[in-house]
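Question thread 4412

I'm putting together a teaching handout and wanted feedback from people who do this every day. The idea is simple: show students a protein as raw sequence, then show them the structure tokens that encode its fold, then repeat with a second protein so they can compare. Below is the first pair exactly as I plan to print it.
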Amino acid sequence: MSRSGKGTEKKPGRNVRAKSGLNRAILDQGWGKFLRQLSYKQERRGGLLISVNPHYTSQMCNCCGFVDSSNRKSQADFKCIACGHEDHADVNAAKNILAAGHAVFACGEELRPTPSKAVKASSMKQEPFLGQLVA
């Protein structure tokens, strides 16, 4: 988020001054302090804070698990090239982060999506479902 907006000699950046102000504001926020305070508040109220690695969550399909950079058509559009699922890119990433948090909570493992053509496998720590659910 705080990458330089200068560009190159052939393709100079636009609004460099505004971008540098935004960069300064982002870096001044103190994200470590925020995370520490959030963790403290959750513990105090009996809640649980689960950290999830966000890498590739915006490129992974939350329906089939296929990860590819071409799934993300634009800043706002997501369309899986494997199964055709369409969603807002941020909503899709949020669903993937939620699923990764549930996996950490349920199985004690971190899901790390990697860019590959393979569909993700189910957790090895999850017990297989052997019967019907009874209501």
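The second pair follows. I'd like the answer to focus on this one:
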Amino acid sequence: MGKHILIIDDDVHIGDMLAEALEREGYRVSRAYSGTEALLLTERTTPDLVLLDLMLPGLSGEEVLPRLKGVPTIVVSAKVDVQDKVDLLLGGAADYVTKPFDMQELLARIAVRLREGPGPDAARLTAGGLSLDTDTRAAAWGDGQTRLTRTECAILKLLMLNPSQVITRSTILDRISLDTPDCTESSLKMHVSNLRRKLRALTGHDWIEAVWGIGFKLRPPAGAP
């Protein structure tokens, strides 16, 4: 049986077109026409991939996205602002396709995401030999591990999801607010400092690079996978 794809879009014409093309490719397709309906569906069954429109009745696509934990989600939207795309990708979207889109390109992107497996909000993340279990909030290196606070775990998760990017302080504060309410602009530096100290004690390496005046970046050891 083919992979299961959930289309979340209130535009019936676009949804019909997507469903027809996906079914021709052998996928199983479900439909949701609002954010609330989509969350009810995903409580009963977990799709292999979601196509998510942003302009939805009720809950918006931006509100639905962080609740699609572990499911690769491709945002399909008429919004073309670059910052919108950056924010959504940092917030957990696997990809962003602008309407109107080329169907063959979208099908190719879907195939790539399905090959990559679980989405970026899956419980275990890895980068450069370091792994993070977001359920237990434990970072592991070789045979050792260290427990993190909720805020430290949220910061490390965001950096590991975007290993080659400098993440601004404001973006960190905005994104981790989904996981922890206790990090403020004044306390962020302390939380990052404590996280760096724990990771250095665990691995002997300084994993977090401060980019002066901007934010922070993950810095795996040289030659790490």
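Top answer:
Good format. For the second protein you could add a caption like this: The CA atoms of residues 1 and 42 lie 19 Å apart. The mean pLDDT is 85.
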